Amino acid sequence: MYIVALYQDPMHGKRIIISGNDIGMSLVPKELSISDPILLRHILCLIIVIHNVFYMILCCRQLKLCKEYKAPPPEMEGVMSQEAFEASKEKQLHYSYLELFNLIVDTIYSCLDLYLCILAHIWKLTVNWYGHTNHVWLNVTFMTLFSTYLVFRMLPSLFYEKLVLDPKYNVDPEKSPPLVGLICAMAFYVVFLQIGIIPLTTILMSIVRMSVWYFVLIAWLVLVLVFLLMLVTVGIFGVPCLGKSRLLKDSDMNERLRLVLIQFKFPGRVYLVHTFHVGRPTAWVMGCFCCLRLDIHDNLKLHRGLDANDLQSGQVGAGLNDEQLPAFVAHQLAHWKLWHVRKTLAMINLSLLLYLVLFGLCYKWQTLYLAAGFTKFYPSIVGFWLVYKYLMPVYYTINAWIVFFFLRHFEYAADAYVVRRGYGVPMRAALLKLFADDYEFPYVDHCYLMWHRFRPSILQRILNLQRLEQNRRVSIVSLI
C-alpha cells in the first residue's frame, strides 16, 4: 500500500497541518514521572552523557599510556626500531584524540537535538514544504533532510582532523586526502545517500505498520537467513571483491602446509587469493559443511609468492616464510576446529534478537517522541533513530564487552590449540613478522581494549604464546 502511495502526485491532496502542543524547550518537568516528556528528555540526555563520558575516560587512559612509554617493548627488540615506535605512537595519539573529539561533539549534538527540538523543526519544515502530500512522502522528505543533517554534523570532526591533528602529528599530505577533497566527497555522499532513502524508508514504514512483535520475529528470521546464505555463498564463491581465487593442488603446496592440512583433517578446498590491492595479510576458513574452503591471501606469503624483481620496493621482504605460513594457517584451522565461527554467528544473532526485542518494547512509546519535541503527529521513521541513539547505549556497552570478551578468548584458545600441536614457536615468529610488515602501537590499555578490540594486541598474544610454550616444555620434561 505504501509503495503504491509513493508514486502518487505529492502536490495534490488535502493539506496536512501539525496539530497538538509540544513541550518546546521547557526544562522544568510537570511531574516526577517517566511518563513526563520533559523529565524523560533529561534522562535521555543523561544516558548519552554517561555513555560518552565512559568512552572518553577509556580514550584518556589510552592517551596516558601512549605518553608514558618511550620505547618499544623488549619482546619486540630487533623487530621494531625506535623510529617505527615513534611513528606508531603518533598514529595512535592522532586516532585517540580524534575519537575523544568525536565523543565530545556527539554529546553536544545529541543533547542539543533534544533540548532545541532540532528533529521536530526538521519535521515542521518537511510538513510546510510537502503539506499536501501523503504520510509516505513526508517521511521520505524528512529522512532526506535528516540524513543530510547527519552528514553535515561530521564537519567539525573533519576540520579538527585536517587543521589541527594532521599538522601536529606530521601526517603525510600525499597519504591523506585534502580537506577540500573531503568536503566535496561529503557533498557527493549526501546526493548518493538519497538513492537508498526512498526504498529503505518505504520498506521500514511498511514493516512498522504490522504488529511490532511480528516485525521483531520477521526481521530476526530474515537476518538469520541472510547470515546463513552468506555463509554458504562465501563457501562456494569466496569473496570475489578481494581478488581472484586459484585452487591450490597438493603439488602447489610445500610439505609443511600439506602436513598442517593432514593434521587438522581439513575436508575443504584450499585457494590462493590474488588480492587486487595490498591489504591486511590473512587467511581464513569460510563456509560450512560441504561448502568449506580455506582462503590464503597471496600477501601472506613471502614476496607474495613472486620473484623480488616483480614487486614494488615496499612489498619486498613482506609476508611469511615456509615455516611461519603453516603455523598461521594452523591458527585459522584451530578456529574452525573449535567452532569459533559458528559460536560467533550464534552470539551475533542472539544479540540482534535481544536488540530487536528491546526495540519492539520502546518503538511505540509515545513519550519518547514527545521528549524529542514532537507532537502526537510525528514521522514514523524517526523512531528508529530515537531508540537507537538514546535508549540503546547501555545495551551497546554491555553487549560490546560480552561479545569482545568471547572473541578475544577465541584468539587465545586458538593459540593454545596450535601450541599443543607444536606450532607455538613459528606462530610467535609469524606474529612478529606480520607486526614488522605493518607497525602498530604495541601497547594497549586493558580497559580500553575491553571495549575497542575484538582481538588481543600482538604484544599480549606474543606474551601468551611464550607462557604457553614454557608450560608445554615443563609438561614434557615432567613426563620424561
Whole-Å distance between the termini? 77 Å
Mean pLDDT across every amino acid position: 86
What's the alpha carbon Rg, rounded to whole Å?
A: 27 Å
The count of helical stretches stands at: 17
What overall form do the CA principal axes indicate? globular
Could you name the ranges where pLDDT drops below 50 across 5 or more consecutive residues? 1-8
The largest pleated sheet is described as:
4 strands, mixed
- Share of residues in helices: 55-70%
Secondary structure category: mainly alpha
Write the H/E string, N to C.
HHHHHHHHEHEEEHHHHHHHH
Number of strands: 4
Strand content: under 5%
Instruction: List the strand order in the largest sheet.
Output: 1-2-4-3
What keyword list fits this structure?
480 residues, mainly alpha, four-stranded mixed β-sheet, disordered N terminus
Q: What report would you give on this structure?
A:
The protein is mainly α and 480 residues long. The protein is 64% helix and 4% strand. It has a four-stranded mixed beta sheet with strand order 1-2-4-3. Helix 4 packs across helix 5 (135-152). The N and C termini lie far apart (77 Å).
